[in-house]
């Protein structure tokens, strides 16, 4: 863990969140390498840019605290599939109930494999250190901690 970098990133993140929440930014100036300056004064564009900056600072802070994704994982097909699912989940129109409605149309063996994945996700989250869980995931973490003992005792056979 790079505690100095994490502290600086945490401070920057808090600052960006504060200015986003209070709407105090009315101009963002971009400086090009050739010395030109361009300003963005549109309130919606500024909010979007701040949102992107906050997301990136959160990612950098997480990396500074816990390290980067191991290369062996980053190159795996499972990680690539998880990243594709991440993109789908990031769409505000993603409907979890409709996703669940689609599961019975999977091949039955793959439906069982999907539940093995969900079981692994739940038990994996339950095993995380509490300091690696932020406020947005606290309720899910607590739910996983309650479900994990039952799931660990239950086998999903290959049929």
Give me the strand/helix succession.
HEEHHHHHH
- Output the structural class: mainly alpha
- Please count the beta strands (DSSP E, at least 2 residues each): 2
Helix content: 55-70%
User: Termini separation (Å)?
Assistant: 44 Å
Low-confidence stretches: none
Indicate the mean pLDDT.
92
Strand arrangement across the biggest beta sheet: 1-2
Percentage of β-strand residues:
5-15%
**Quick one: overall form?**
elongated
How large is the count of helical segments?
Answer: 7
Q: Quick one: biggest sheet? A: 2 strands, antiparallel
Q: What gyration radius follows from the Cα positions, in whole Å?
A: 21 Å
Description:
With 159 residues, this protein is mainly alpha-helical. 65% of the residues lie in helices and 5% in strands. The chain is built from seven helices and two strands; from the N terminus they run H-E-E-H-H-H-H-H-H. The chain has helices spanning 3-22, 43-66, 71-74, 77-89, 96-102, 108-126, 138-153, and strands at 28-31, 37-40. Strands 1-2 form a two-stranded antiparallel sheet. A hairpin with a 5-residue loop joins strand 1 (28-31) and strand 2 (37-40). Helix 1 packs antiparallel against helix 2 (43-66) and helix 6 crosses helix 7 (138-153). It is elongated and about 65 Å long.
């Amino acid at each position: 863990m790079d505690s100095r970098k994490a502290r600086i990133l945490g401070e920057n993140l808090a600052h960006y969140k504060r200015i986003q929440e209070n709407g105090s930014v009315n101009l963002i100036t971009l400086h090009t390498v050739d010395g030109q300056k361009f300003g963005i004064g549109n309130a919606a564009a500024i909010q979007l840019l701040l949102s992107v900056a906050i997301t990136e600072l959160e990612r950098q802070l997480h990396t500074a605290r816990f390290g980067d994704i191991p290369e062996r994982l980053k190159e795996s097909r499972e990680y690539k599939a998880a990243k594709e699912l991440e993109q789908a989940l990031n769409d505000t129109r993603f409907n979890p109930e409709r996703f669940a409605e689609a599961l019975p149309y999977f091949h039955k063996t793959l439906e069982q494999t999907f539940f093995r994945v969900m079981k692994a996700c739940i038990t994996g989250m339950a095993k995380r250190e509490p300091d690696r869980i932020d406020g947005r995931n606290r309720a899910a973490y607590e739910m996983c901690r309650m479900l994990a003992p039952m799931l660990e005792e239950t086998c999903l056979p290959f049929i």
